[in-house]
Amino acid sequence: MSLSRAKVRKPSWLSGGFDLRSVLLEGRAFFALIVILVVFSVLSPNYLTVSNLLVMSQHVALYAILAIGMLYVVLNGGIDLSVGSTVGLSGVIAGFLLQGVDLPGDVRAFPSVWVTVVCVMAVGALVGLVNGVLVSRYKVAPFVATLGILYAARGAALLIAKGATYPNLQGFSEFANTGFNRVGFDKILGLPTGVIVMVVLAAVASVVLNKTAFGRWLYASGGNERAAELSGIPVKKVKVRVYVFSGLCASIAGVILTSELTSANPTSGETYELTAIAAVVIGGASLMGGSGNIRGTLLGAFVIGFLADGLIIVGVSEYWQMVFKGVVIVLAVVLNTIQYSPRRRARTDRPAGGEPTMQDSKTLVATSER
Amino acid sequence: MRRTIASIALVVALIPLAACSSTNTNSSGTAKTSEAASSNKNILLITNSLGEEYWTASANAVKAEGQKLGYTVTVTSHNGDNKKESELVDAAIATKPAAVLLDPANADGSIGAVQKLVDAKIPVFIVNAEINKEGLAKAQLVSDNAQGAALGAQQFAKELGGKGTYVQLNGPSSDNNAIARANGFKSVLSQYPDLKNVQTQSIPWDTTVGRNTTQSMLQAHPGVNAVLASGDGFAVGAVAALLQAGEAGKIKVGGFDGSPQAVKYVKAGYMFYTVLQPVVEFSAKAVDEADQYLKTGKTGADAEKQLFNCTLITPANANKYTGPYTLSQ
User: Fold this and answer.
1) B-interface mutation test, from A318, A321, A322, most B Cβ less than 10 A away
2) Chain segment B94-110, per-residue pLDDT in tens
3) Is A52's CB within 8 Å of B207's CB?
């Protein structure tokens, strides 16, 4: 491939060249958050208080945990629509176990709180495993596979709960299964438990993505799966593991939410998957796979959460809230498209002679693999 | 040529047969249907969402009463979706139950579905929510939402001594029941000028949304005295928000529906009251009226639209709550 011989024409209206624009694009979630904080604190004196920030962070934490799992799946080029149902199913499993389980032989088992949490997480991981196997081994499209599991998991939750809510999650002291409040309801060092879990999970997920081999495999298989496979990366294993991780995150979010609400409702979590996807997209990840990071995803979750709560504080009607949320998501997707569009670079890099450059061939290979 | 004449003759011969069967149904229609009906012991309940305790309670009441009267009850749900409701109605017409009990997805949108059943000669009994057209269903049995809301609002005003500030949670504006309750609240509470509504939000009947919205409203209006909710789904979420803020018991909630969780909170002192919807009562009554209609051709009620009174559940009578949506005497 020969180098470009023609002069690259920079747009004259950006004297800084391409850089300022890309800085704005990359940092768009951050700037959006700043704008939201400024606008709402001007509109209401109660917005930027410590107690409100804690309350809003508690709401954000739930979606952020879901979004971290969703990011892994999206980085792999997939999507996980079942996380909302897994949230509901996790709550129901927790409720079911905390009531006491009737075993054969006239025995009633009361698993303690930590056992309950582990069981719930195992169920979440199992749901993720089913998704992962469907997508990797049976080559079902992720949208279709996880959509089917969305219905199956929701149905399972309703069946187990028999359509009712589990109200008694406090446990019985004589059976040593009290303490469920510590899973989400209580505060740790003044911060809601959900927020602490979100921070820890984000830190771990970020380290895995940036510092481990698995992280490199994930980015590689998302960017170009065929090339990654040929380089010796176990793409099937990576695929299964990201769905398991997503299911695990969903069950963690579900059990925290159940603890916060002090009741387990089989219908909880409906449409949460869409908010998780929106957070990932606003954070700058590409739905095609291969690009995105934890920082952006967290920012995306905060943007959605702070915007939604701000609209309630200001007293906007629920219809306008929906419009705002939709506009923000669409804007984010449009900006994503601008950021990841190959046309811009290709046009400015292409030499006058018309010989393809490295950029062009990468685009060609990438598009042909989809 | 001969074959053509023969086939035409065959077709002509068959025409009276076709006319015959349809005239049979028309002329001796009532006799035939009631014969079929008394031997047809299948009742179909198309309810809203089997994922909510309220509708599960309704379905259980229908099943129990149906079994008592010797019917087999099948239950399906449309989850508030008109299209799903329409499909379930088509399936129902194919299976030909003796009667259909329907909880309509929408007061206007479900009229078409009811019409289909009426055209298929299946008697329809509407439960829990109305449709905006009379003369189609044999009976419409619903809670008196306006009366229930007024009952709740009066208790709310009484508990607050007629003064203070409150925030209000309404159901979705697309739900007629939500609108009826909001109007009921307004008609009573507007008579107390010292009782100020500082914010109202219309939200889905969901616990988490109720919790989140209440938390945000508490942030926007610190020092508010109480929360008025028009549904126990989000009333329970409001209590969760207050529990976490450490204000439960100081700031109390008024609810509507009579769900088990809400009654639990009434007993614990976190909710002033909840308004019990007579869902068990009118679901069972719908089966009774269907049975009466199938046996005698009349439901036994004096009007199509029948409103059933709601009951207030306060700490005083909360111990009479013996099962989901059931207040014993």
Assistant:
1) A318
2) 999 999 999 998 888 89
3) no
Running DSSP on this structure, what letter comes out for residue A194? H
User: pTM (2 decimals)?
Assistant: 0.81
Q: Which of A164, A360, A228 is nearest to B59 (CA)?
A: A164
- Topology of domain A59-310 in CATH is ABC transporter involved in vitamin B12 uptake, BtuC (1.10.3470)
CA B70 distance to own-chain centroid: 24
**Whole-complex ipTM:** 0.78
For residue B45, the cross-strand partners are B75, B101
CATH of B13-142+280-307, one of 3.40.1030.10, 3.40.50.2300, 1.10.10.60, 3.20.20.140: 3.40.50.2300
Q: Cβ distance A257 to B208 under 8 Å?
A: yes
A46 and B222 in contact by Cβ < 8 A? yes
Taking an 8 Å cut-off on Cβ atoms, the answer to whether A262 and B219 are in contact is no
State the best of A46, A60, A87, A165 to mutate against chain B, taking most chain B CBs within 10 Å: A165
CB B279 within 8 A of CB B58: yes
Per-residue pLDDT tens over the stretch B54-78: 888 999 999 999 999 999 999 999 9
A288/B248 Cα distance (integer angstroms): 47
3-state secondary structure of A168: coil
The one-letter amino acid at A114: W
